Amino acid sequence: MSTNAPETTCNRRLRLGVDIGGTFTDFVLEDAAGGRTWFGKTLTTPHDPGDAIVEGMQTLLSEAQMTAADVVTVVHGTTLVTNAVIERTGARTALLATRGFRDVLEIGRELRYDIYDLQLDMPKPLVPRRWCADVPERIDAHGNVITPLDLVALDAIVAKLIDDGIESIAICFLHAFVNPAHEQQAAAHIRARWPSVAVCCSSDVLPEIREYERATATVMNAYVQPITDAYLRRLAARLGAIGFVGTIHIMLSSGRLTTIDGARRAPVHLLESGPAGGAMAGVHVCRASRLPDLLTFDMGGTTAKASLIQDYKPQITTHFEAARVRRFKKGSGLPVRVPVIDMIEIGAGGGSIAWLDTLGLLRVGPSSAGAVPGPACYDHGGMHPTVTDADLVLGYLDPDFFLGGRLTLNRAAAEHAIDAHVARPLGVTIEEAALGIHRVVNESMANAARVHIIEKGHDPRRFSMMAFGGAGPVHAFQVARLLHLQECLVPVGAGVASAFGFLAAPIAQELVWSAIVQLDRCDWSATSARIAAMEVEGSAFLRDAGIAQHEISVARTADMRYAGQGHEISVPVPGGQLDADAGQRIRVAFDQEYKRTFGRLVEHMAVQIVTWRTVISGPSPVMVTTPSVATNARASQKGTRSVRFPELASRIACPVHDRNALASGSVLTGPVLIEEAESTVVVGPHATVLVDAARTLRVSLHASPRAGALSHQHHDALARAGVVA
């Protein structure tokens, strides 16, 4: 994609976002000084993701007439950690626990995620029991040493594990979150005697209460650390080989960035790095469109996910599960209490396979064709019908303009796959089968999103939706219609929005301290000193990453509960020195949040603080939102295409517009297709599309079918965005 901005010369000013997905690797190259942005997308190379990164980066730099030496920062997100946990391809890992606690992974929480399933499959621990060892040592809940660490016994235990081929060791001693001395001593001893073995301590990975969750997070970190470290080293070397001499930052699951060294130490925080980028792109769109609340809808090649943004902030949770035995069943995965953006997997992606179950009912997913062999229409050997094949048959995709023309789609192959696996077995036409696939995936995604929003205590109808991902804009209109939403937004570069979100995220670090204390008995002097030390540590990390001290901000929260409860809620904590007055403000904040969440308060019940959290952040970068092509002088309509919409009884000749030729203030009436290289926006009948000042497409789903007519709500939203008076 070329730019319409004048060419200037200024070395090392570019920033590159790279998101490796299951099917595609996405790129966003930004020149903030020159006011230009380039987008790119290439097929992921599962055998070595670095191949796709180098290929896509060089292609985009060539288009921009720049070199790798001009790139000052590469921001990267990857599915490497998630895939390693799901596919069980991590390092051979052992767990060292306090004597008597070696079975913490096997015992878990003793909860059944489906109490009526008599043949329930529970998630298997990443470490088999034979590699779980207990070490003579004990520290009590107050941090006092009861039994000193036995280094002689430790040597014998580790030596035996090394003989068994162990590559990584997780250390999770009882109450190490209060006093980490034994963990740190054991780790130092092992590193000195066996330097080739990776070692992770729970006091470094997750210094919080709850033994099982702390153990699973530490084990998972140890399990993926060797492969993540090797991958990041290879990536740095490969980028260096093509001339890159800048800084590599890594996207965390919390929507924040860390350094490459930080990612090597704690790769468990990368579990949801790709989807987190999409949520951060949603935050950027919220601000640009002046919409404080938004539902993000991310549909890529493999999965579709949704998350809520409220008051311009993504919702963060520490209740996350990896590698679920049942994909959509809570409790069937391994719990990981690391901060992640709260999102839900709501369905399939473009590469998800359509199939008939034993009752002859049409299903879509969870199996995916991925990048290799891919959907049947890719002509790379895929034989099964996918969502992308159905979209092509229905006319939503241009076979000659997929990925901007870099990949030609084979419609005949798509029709053959749908006919063989769906149409003929059901006794329907190929078009009816394709429409059935389209409807099934839309209905399932809308239902899952509706449940997610309602569980959060909100009415779905009050949210606008932002659609992104390669397949998101294709399906967003129908999903939004099923949710009875008023408006759907599609930003520029929606097909690579996660990579864009990487560039919009701040560098940050979260530090935690678990210390259960009753609020009215808190030692505020000691607490303030501990939190201040955490802030000093986090600020030093950011300064090492190149952030000036005056640009660093601090946000505090506390996990709180009524005494005797087993779960906590997150409550904001005031800055500065904490004292009894601050404690009163914290109690008021707890009451407000508890009542908002549960609708009631428990009178005369003591309140406890369980965990203190401090987030030290750098500034959010100012992003270039103008697309690299914005030609207002030519007509935007490229032609028409035969398209079948679910609302209409037959195909129509639907107008097709070039998104890059649509000027701010342009108005279109559905049905209409709007194409850019990375995605296609499908808008059904009786809708109005308006391009706002940030070049975001704002689709009013309940507008009058008359051309140019806008709903009052849509008009007001566009007025706030500066498009209409």
What is this entry, summarized?
By secondary structure, the protein is an alpha+beta fold. It contains 17 helices and 35 strands. It starts with 13 loop residues before the first strand and ends in a 5-residue tail after the last helix.
Describe this structure as you would to a colleague.
The chain has 17 helices and 35 strands. Strands 13, 14, 15, 20, 23, 24, 31, 34 and 35 form a 9-stranded mixed sheet that branches. A 6-stranded mixed sheet has the order 3-2-1-4-11-12, with helices on both faces. The longest helix has 31 residues, at 211-241. A hairpin with a 6-residue loop joins strand 26 (553-562) and strand 27. Helices cover 32% and strands 26% of the residues. With 725 residues, the protein is α+β, with helices and mostly antiparallel strands.
Topology:
Layout: E1 14-20, E2 24-31, E3 36-43, H1 49-64, E4 71-77, H2 80-87, E5 93-98, H3 104-107, E6 132-135, E7 138-139, E8 145-147, H4 151-163, E9 168-172, H5 181-193, E10 198-201, H6 202-205, H7 211-241, E11 247-251, E12 257-259, H8 260-265, H9 273-289, E13 294-299, E14 303-310, E15 313-314, E16 316-317, E17 320-322, E18 334-336, E19 340-341, E20 343-348, E21 352-356, E22 362-368, H10 387-393, H11 411-426, H12 430-455, E23 464-468, H13 472-482, E24 487-490, H14 497-504, E25 508-518, H15 524-544, E26 553-562, E27 569-573, H16 580-598, E28 607-617, E29 637-643, E30 652-658, E31 667-669, E32 672-676, E33 679-683, E34 688-691, E35 697-700, H17 712-720
Parallel strand pairs: 1-4, 4-11, 5-6, 5-9, 9-10, 13-23, 23-24, 30-32
Antiparallel strand pairs: 1-2, 2-3, 7-8, 11-12, 13-14, 14-15, 14-20, 16-19, 17-18, 21-22, 24-35, 25-28, 26-27, 26-28, 29-30, 31-34, 32-33, 34-35
Helix pairs in contact: 2-7, 9-14, 10-11, 10-12, 11-12, 12-13
